[in-house]
Write a structure and sequence with these properties.
alpha+beta; flat
Length: 80
C-alpha cells in the first residue's frame, strides 16, 4: 500500500516482515506465535511438496479474490 502505518509498540514486542506483509507480535504472545508459525510452516512445506505450488497466493487460490478487489500481483516493479 506504500503508506505509513502507526501502531503501538512496547518493549519486548517484535516486528516480523516478509514478502507477504508485516506483523507486530506483542511480547506476551511470542512463544504461542512461534509455535503456531512452526506448525503452519510444516503444513505449508507438506502442501508445497504435494502440489508443487510455491506461492501461498496460488496454493490458497487468492488471485481471483485479489482481481475482484481490483488488485493484481506483480513480481517486479517494472511489471506495473
Amino acid at each position: 500500500m506504500n503508506i505509513p502505518l502507526l501502531t503501538p509498540l512496547c518493549p519486548g514486542d517484535i516486528i516480523v516482515a516478509d514478502d507477504d506483509g508485516v506483523v507486530v507480535v506483542p511480547a506476551a504472545d511470542i512463544a504461542d506465535t512461534l509455535a503456531a508459525a512452526e506448525k503452519r510452516q510444516a503444513k505449508r512445506r507438506q502442501e508445497t511438496a504435494e502440489t508443487g505450488i510455491r506461492l501461498g497466493l496460488d496454493l490458497y487460490e487468492m488471485r481471483p479474490a485479489l482481481e475482484k478487489a481490483g488488485l493484481r500481483y506483480v513480481k517486479k516493479l517494472e511489471d506495473l
